Structure formats: structure tokens, C-alpha cells
């Protein structure tokens, strides 16, 4: 089990009853690098239902809001930073980044699990669900949003979730050669690929398309596809292979 997967409840370790709220509030503000103007938002965000005087004093309502704030922030981030990805690609990346697994992992990496305020039954029996830490991540996001605004939230999420976004984009890009080629070309060659139709073949109901990727003045080996979208993906794959000195995955043939 990796370090970030281990939930470290301070109460369970120290034998406390979850009442040491002040030190947890201070510690959490250090972790997230934000000082609350109204610390009651943070207190609610860190309080599990088991440690609350009543359900409305727990982090459940903030978790509800935080889920939407998190989703909106990540969607805007991906929309602005990855213009080459279509709606389906962006949806898959976003789903991976805001998943319970990802949020729980990041929360533990930050140390938010040490700041949870829980009831004695949870610390004594350790009968907490694995979703507990991902829930507090969302509630803390909501608390920061209410106290500091969307810009404060965005700046912190871009820092905290950078690794998750990178992994999700790389995983999605493994089968999206056009995106990979565009990122490479813009980063290394200061240019954007375009796709040139070289030739069409076959009857109208079963056409095939031969398309080549072009970067600046260099045209790469063209590739066939049963539609233009597939041909462009295959052409991008050929271009990536040529750029990296690898065998062509789609050698041109008639």
C-alpha cells in the first residue's frame, strides 16, 4: 500500500476524541496555504457526521457544493489548456481527475486526513468508509470557494491536481495520436499540424482516404483510413513514429 493510500486519523493515533478542533483548523490552513476570514466554513468542512452535533453541522452540505465547484474548475482548466481534445476526450479526463480515488489520494498526500474531526466511534472502531477522505477534499474545496472565491480555489486545484491531470491526459492521449502530435509540435517545433488529403479510393459507399500530417514545411508519410477521422489519427501516428525514429505503424500502400 502506498503512502498516499494510508489514512492517518490523528484521533485514532493519539487516543483523542476529535475535540482538538483548534489545532486541526490551524494545521489545515497551513496545509492548504490559505487563512480563512470565516473559519466556521473550514470547521464545517472538516467535521464528519460522526463528530457533528447534528447532521447540518457536518461537511455533507459543503461536500454537495464542492463536487460542483471541483467539476466546474477542472472542466474550465481542461477546456482552456487542451483545445485539441474533443468533448468525449475531455469528459474521460475530467472523470478520472475528479474521481473519488483521485480526490482521496490527493487529500492524503496533502495531509487532510490528519485534520478530520470525527466521533469516538469512528476512531475507536476505525469503521470509516474509504470515501471519507475524498468527501472532505470536496468539502474543503467548497469552504475555500465560499470564503475566498473561485480564483483562490482554481489556483490551489491547479497545484494539487496537476499530477492527476497529467496522468489522465497521458492515458487518454495514448490512443489519441492527433492530440499527442499537436502537443509535441507546439512544444518542440512551435507549429501546429495540419492534415492534407492525398487521395481517395473506392466507391462512394466504401471510400478510403489517404491523409498526411504536415508540420511547417514537412509532410510525413500518409496513412489510409476508412473515414477522414481515422485516416488523420493514423497519419498522426505515422508522424509521431517518424519524429521518434520508429517503424511506421501505418506504412502507405495502395
Describe this structure in words.
- It is a single chain.
- Strands 1, 2, 3 and 4 form a four-stranded antiparallel beta sheet that branches.
- With 254 residues, the protein is α+β, with helices and mostly antiparallel strands.
- Strand 2 (208-215) and strand 3 form a beta hairpin.
- It has twelve helices and four strands; from the N terminus they run αααααααααααββββα.
- It is elongated and about 75 Å long.
- The longest helix has 22 residues, at 60-81.
- Helix 4 (60-81) crosses helix 8 (131-148), helix 4 crosses helix 9 and helix 11 (177-188) packs across helix 12.
Fold blueprint:
Blueprint: H1 10-14, H2 21-32, H3 39-46, H4 60-81, H5 87-97, H6 100-110, H7 120-125, H8 131-148, H9 150-160, H10 162-173, H11 177-188, E1 194-201, E2 208-215, E3 218-219, E4 223-225, H12 228-243
Antiparallel strand pairs: 1-2, 2-3, 2-4
Helix pairs in contact: 3-8, 4-5, 4-8, 4-9, 5-10, 6-8, 8-9, 11-12
Tell me the radius of gyration: 24 Å
Give me the secondary-structure category: alpha+beta
* Main pleated-sheet profile: 4 strands, antiparallel
Please tell me the overall pLDDT: 84
Shape type: elongated
Strand content: 5-15%
Please give the share of residues in helix: 55-70%
Low-confidence stretches: 1-19
How far apart the termini lie comes to 52 Å
Number of beta-strand segments: 4
Summed up, the helix count is: 12
Quaternary structure state of the chains depicted: single chain
N-to-C SSE string, H for helix and E for strand: HHHHHHHHHHHEEEEH
Keyword list:
254 residues; alpha+beta; 4-stranded antiparallel sheet; 57% helix; disordered N terminus
Amino acid at each position: 500500500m502506498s503512502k498516499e493510500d494510508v489514512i492517518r486519523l490523528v484521533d485514532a493515533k493519539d487516543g483523542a476524541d476529535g475535540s482538538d478542533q483548534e489545532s486541526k483548523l490551524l494545521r489545515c490552513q497551513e496545509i492548504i496555504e490559505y487563512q480563512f476570514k470565516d473559519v466556521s466554513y473550514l470547521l464545517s468542512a472538516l467535521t464528519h457526521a460522526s463528530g457533528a452535533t447534528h447532521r447540518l453541522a457536518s461537511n455533507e452540505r459543503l461536500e454537495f457544493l464542492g463536487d460542483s465547484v471541483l467539476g466546474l474548475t477542472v472542466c474550465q482548466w481542461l477546456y482552456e489548456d487542451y483545445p485539441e481534445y474533443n468533448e468525449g476526450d475531455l469528459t474521460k479526463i475530467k472523470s478520472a481527475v475528479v474521481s473519488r480515488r483521485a480526490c482521496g489520494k490527493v487529500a492524503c498526500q496533502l495531509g487532510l486526513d490528519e485534520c478530520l474531526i470525527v466521533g469516538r466511534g469512528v476512531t475507536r472502531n476505525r469503521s470509516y468508509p474509504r470515501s471519507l477522505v475524498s468527501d472532505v477534499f470536496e468539502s474543503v474545496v467548497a469552504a475555500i470557494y465560499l470564503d475566498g472565491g473561485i480564483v483562490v480555489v482554481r489556483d490551489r486545484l491547479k497545484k494539487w491536481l496537476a499530477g492527476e491531470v497529467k496522468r489522465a491526459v497521458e492515458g487518454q492521449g495514448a490512443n489519441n495520436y492527433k492530440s499527442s502530435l499537436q502537443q509535441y509540435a507546439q512544444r518542440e517545433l512551435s507549429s501546429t499540424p495540419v492534415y492534407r488529403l492525398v487521395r481517395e479510393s473506392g466507391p462512394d459507399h466504401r471510400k478510403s482516404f489517404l491523409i498526411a500530417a504536415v508540420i511547417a514545411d514537412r509532410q510525413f508519410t500518409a496513412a489510409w483510413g476508412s473515414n477522414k477521422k481515422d485516416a488523420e489519427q493514423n497519419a498522426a501516428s505515422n508522424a509521431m513514429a517518424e519524429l521518434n525514429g520508429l517503424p511506421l505503424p501505418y506504412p502507405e500502400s495502395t
